[in-house]
Write a structure and sequence with these properties.
This protein is an alpha/beta fold. It has helices at residues 77-93, 143-156, 182-186, 256-266, 283-288, 310-317, 324-337, 353-366, 371-374, 391-398, 402-415, 453-458, 463-469, and strands spanning 4-9, 23-27, 30-35, 57-65, 101-109, 112-121, 126-136, 159-167, 222-224, 228-231, 234-237, 270-276, 293-298, 344-349, 389-390, 416-421, 424-427, 434-437, 445-446. α2 (143-156) packs parallel to α4 and α6 (310-317) packs antiparallel against α7 (324-337). It is globular. It starts with a strand and ends with a helix.
Length: 470
Amino acid sequence: MKHIVVLVASLFIATMACAQTVNLHMKNGEVIKYNTSEIDYIDFTASGEESDPSVDNELTILLYMPWTGSLSSEGLYPYLTENVESVCTAIEGMKGMTDYRLMLFISESYNKSKLYEITYNESRVKCEKKLVKEYSGNEYTTLKGLTDILDEVKNHATAQHYAMVLGCHGTGWTFKDSWHRYPNYAKKQPPTDSLEGESSESAQETSSFGGDSPISSPPRGSRWGAPYQNYNGVITPMHTRFFGSVSDISTFSTDIPTLAQAIANAGMKMEYILFDDCYMANVEVAYELRNVTDFLLASTSEVMAVGVPYYSMWASLTSVTPGYVDAVSAFDRFYRDYVMPYGTFSAIDCRQMDELATAMREINSKYKLSDEALHSIQVLDGFYDPIFFDMGDYLEKLCTGLVDYSYVVTLMESAVCSKCNTAQIYSFLYNSPILIDVNTFSGITISDPSINSVAQDGKEKTSWWKATHE
């Protein structure tokens, strides 16, 4: 029997100390909500039993979950352990891992990580884990450290095919060095009456996005305040996978080109890379990863802290020919019924990015976006000055030539092989959460028109910009 190995990962980390301890609840294998009570941790104590080196497998999937906290906070660790629990529950429900094996890299603290192999014990009808290697420090954020981890996985479970799931915080294609004033960029004070859903003309904070305009109203196309929840009498906003350690982004984060280079160094081209993180379904990310993965599965927007629904999605991810439409449908079903029914998810064929880039280069040589059009494009983030715009809507506003527009949109739509969105999406970039109306959705974002200072600092450094503008 051939086998598959899975490694789960968290790379793009921008984490912040949570104001309270969370308690996660499970229903039918999925996390459904949290409240302010003591967390029950999944036991990741090593069994003391090491796995034998693997023979060649057909598929190896990498679940990678690095540290998402700071030196003093645990970040998303409770959620990530629950995600692993959901995966194990799915495996147990399927009575084992037919034709695949599963590995897990997880950081248990800011300077302590472990690589496990997760196996299925038929007699106990339970998943078990075996320690493969321990790591100290945070070198997993570097090219060498990440390459070493991938090499270890490859050596332990060499396969014909690989896949990777990353569970962590995400800031899209942006570069960590562009966020040198990250606390100012990401955590501004909303209007004092935001809980009432109204804007305030007397807001004291100013925007760090492209100027000093007062934040007297929520970002365009959104409204303050509604997404507060009452759990056990406590009114609290729900966190997303952007909410994080604003002080440690330079210490606990990895740029997309570094990820791409590490995968290339290890010689482990992926069947797919799934980002269980915010803001990763960008054309810039898909283009950067085009040589190291066939497909990108990700959200254009913020992902609730509970992450993707691993229990219902897992069966579609564990085949040499993954069910991308089924995976997107599982995300859609889960979030439409979730206590916070907000989310987007897409499956993008990165093999089509070169052709799309060639077409966009031609488009950019002919057309220029008007100032008026800039302010009418569908925004899919909560930044006061947006970074992530819906690419389909951007093309409609940019490209006034019907033939050119039809051609490039056809290429884009072909690359986005499956997508879903709720009527509104949720953002928690500021001290008060907001809801954003989704009037049009293509399943992929672009940052070309952004005037956000982070985008302006980094977008011309991306491979996408160089391929489509220079």
